[in-house]
Fold each of these.
Amino acid sequence: MNIVVCVKYVPDAQGDRTFNEDNTTDRDNVDGLLSELDEYAVEAALKIVEAGEGEVTVVTVGPEQAADAIKKALQMGADKAVHVSDEAIHGSDAVATSLILAEAIKKIGTPDLVLTGLASTDGTMSVVPAMLAERLGLPQVTQVSTLEVEGGTAKGRRDGDVASESVEAQLPALVSVTDQINEPRYPSFKGIMAAKKKPVETWSLADLGVDAGQVGLDAAWTKVESFAARPPREQGEIVTDEGDGGTKLAEFLVAQKFV
Amino acid sequence: MAEVLVLVDHADGQVKKTTAELLTIARSLGTPSAVFVGSNVDAARPRLAQFGAEKVYVIDNADVDNYLVAPLAEALYAVVQQASPAAVLLPSTSHNKEAAARLAIKTESGLITDATAVEAAGDGVSTTQSVFAGSYTVKSTVTKGAPIITIKPNVVPPSAAQASATVVPVELTVSDAAKGAKITAREPKAKSGRPELTEAAIVVSGGRGTGGDFSPVETFADTLGAAVGASRAAVDAGWYPHSNQVGQTGKQVSPQLYVAAGISGAIQHRAGMQTSKTIIAINKDEEAPIFELVDFGVVGDLFTVLPQATEAVQKARA
């Protein structure tokens, strides 16, 4: 079984995330890392391969530093990686990202399974998996909190807004997983050492046959016109409970007309 | 004026409040048309008419319900081809966002998700979104195609404007490719009797500090008529269902009042509640980062503070 896992290098949510002058996400002045939610997809892929046989390929689209996201996935146990990097990609929206990923996956070869996380932790749109499924013509089994792959079928459970659904599809399929699915492993020392020898290919847009005019900031179908930091909240009143904390809380609610 | 399509959020024809909100927004952009996917449109029509839908496109096709996302995208695509709308508005749910994503590729149109405001701007549409865990507000426009926008609940008060709601049936044959992912079972969520988390005016959430006992949280919530939320730590520990999780990977809420009990306030949780109007926290740890956000905080044990507050609220009401 060949599995491709799409991962993203994102600005660390613990740091001060902000924007560049061109209104794109600042990726240079804040530490980046493998999107936390992608670790669940990597773990899901490793579990499937460990239970049978096959190979896990990680693919990412991003600047040079995105190699760090790949490294983490290889340290966890993925077999090889593809890094699509090209200056023209800067400022690409979800639509262009899905185009680049789709072309990269086609070039890798037809996988049995394409796995992704629920969403990236920077854009948090959670639309790239569905766009990829549309582009690749694959059934989408998205946002599942369980996943079983057996006899050429992927089965998962999706925790929707009004109901929980059981979903199944024949392989090849695209699956996105939530953070409820597993507990991602930490890279072992052995894994860290082994990752150094694993093959990583770097592809440009030309390698994929993607026209640079189709991606990047100027080609994006949406445009961020302006950004503004949310005004800092004024420090509220904090009391220490000395037997009357609940009463004071209720008084606040009454004063604010919630009661 | 060009049509603006609104995907109707309904349960067997019972139209949800978000639909009235979206129709209200649609009226500021063009002529609203509702897109009703499913059966029992007769039950829905009066409400759609009341909020200004001139037309109601109806797609009643079992395949849309039996397979995941792709058929809904094909249904929307069929209506878009017929109506050539100025914009397509959908309630921001995970299912709708994915259908919108596929529709964006099919129609070569820009997609904006989780908008908190939508207004006409020149020939197009300008939207507002909250990003980076609520720490920034961005304004965006769509530069290609008819804008496809998913909108969060409670961003405008619904206002009525009677229209005809003329039914326009739309024929749809779902492609074999779209039938790739079949829904084999569906278990409706248990009804708690409490308001829906994302629509509630007040949310009371419990975290690690509850130690698994949510009873003081639930009692306080019921006193205020609030929805109950939970932090990821509480959900991961199995103390509360995932569907009640507030945070980056759970529900995003923006109520009038948010009460965090025994929640430290990790960035992932803050991402789901930081835009709440008024925030209250109760936590034993005075260093908990949640206190940076609050309008009112109590450093103390939720097991003594919440029952006392419940009693005091009941007394104040009496």
Amino acid sequence: MAVDRSDIAKLAELARLAISENTADEVARSISDVLALVDQLQAVNTDGVAPMAHPLDAIQRLRADVVTEPDQRERFQAIAPATQDGLYLVPQVID
Amino acid sequence: MHQLTIAELVKGLRNKDFSSTELTRHYLDRIARLDPVYNSFITPTPELALQQAAEADRRLAAGNAPLLCGVPIAHKDIFCTDGIRTSCASKMLDNFIAPYNATIVENYLADGVITLGKTNMDEFAMGSSNETSFYGPVKNPWATDCVPGGSSGGSAAAVAAHLAPAATASDTGGSIRQPAALCGLTGIKPTYGRVSRWGMIAFASSLDQAGLLTRTAEDAALLLNTMASYDAKDSTCIERDVPDYTATLNNSLKGLKIGVPREYFGEGLNADTAARVQDAIKVYESLGASIHEVSLPHTHLAVPAYYVIAPAECSANLSRFDGVRYGYRCENPTDLADLYKRSRTEAFGDEVKRRILVGSYALSAGYYDAYYSKAQKVRRLIRQDFVDAFKQVDVILGPTSPSPAFAFGSKTKDPVAMYLEDIYTIATNLAGLPGLSIPCGLVDNKPVGLQLIGNDFAEGLLLNAAHQFQQATNFHQLTAPGIE
């Protein structure tokens, strides 16, 4: 399925990316090429086939509901762009 | 020393032919002197390596050191390394100092293996040519106007140029085997879940698999013994004992049934590459194996299924890169939406953005069933092809890549042409099976890769088959021209 500039704008919003005006056509074309490739899947009969999430059909392991991680807040926040009083700083969200 | 394999280095260290410090210094000198040509390292770690080597020498002198103690290797920059920049070759993580080690890195450190540094790669492992790295492309030591393959191209070039005796790598659609083929190395992608993914920066979680690039199958076996482990921290890791992969290397191949899929020899395969693979089949026959034609009828759907599943998973995995807790943040954001959007737009490269957009499309309302769910159903059909084939044969053999290393820029304008580079490798990721590539000759003085695919957890058999081939041939001993 081909996508156009308005589809790209919508996708970019969903993905939190900005696509500049002068590249929108080129991006739309390359995404359309990829979608043309994957559209081959539509010709396959998959009636009765269960989607495969894990190749070995493994099931999710469960563990005891106990804390195993030590508190490393200072270590992790040392690599953050901006922190204060143990919190991550971002632009004001609520007036 | 840089001509020695890991197996020979282990012996040399034990015999005190050289110390780990001497060996490590030798490799660090080569990296400093020669890597400006290849660009295979993003972050060499000389000080850390020499500290680790001194400690390894102490353990070796004490007499109870693990087998690999004192051996230096390089790590692909997709694996988190405590206190060392882990960039995944992206501007997004250019300033990221990982606060912990990936489990495989931890496994190697526990065995006294030295970290020479972090190798270059395609950004977030997305690419087949190592041209999408924020730190610039890696050059193929066999032909510096050609790509080394991707995404583990830095690991492959470092080993091929003898800047490291081996390197860790990762494979989501062929990213170990294709660079192994293009650089004349042995590359193994184990069974999905055999090796922990904890601390490996996620691209497509149901396909990503850590593995190795080495010069010989014997070295791959030695290193896989340490890399493979059950890890409770990775919930997709399979709880299963790790066999000694070196114990079965010398098993006879008499009676081994090798399947050759007719779909791997069709249109698109370079004729000279096909001829080298046919020569390799004759070697296997001379070793006592029998050759059987098999069919993998859904092969042509592997690339389309992959380019739905991988982008869908990448769009979800890469949503964590939002400029809030770590990584790149844009200057002076006006509000939170602006912070997210500009941080991501300024820090991700074009290929990463393209895949995020395709993934967002495949997962968006109204398209999930048509794309993502459909691709997961086709994925089961692809796996079923292999399940059926492995009822008849023990190993599947074919080319790794459709042609030898290609020139820089020759496929960058056409993403679909680039995606078809992985046409023979992608299906094993979708099916979760182990795959391996070994050199089987040259075309235009560039290496050709032979791919062996095994059933679930058949790494030992693959390494055995590869080792026996390497005992009978010398393609793995060929060195790129100009490598001293």
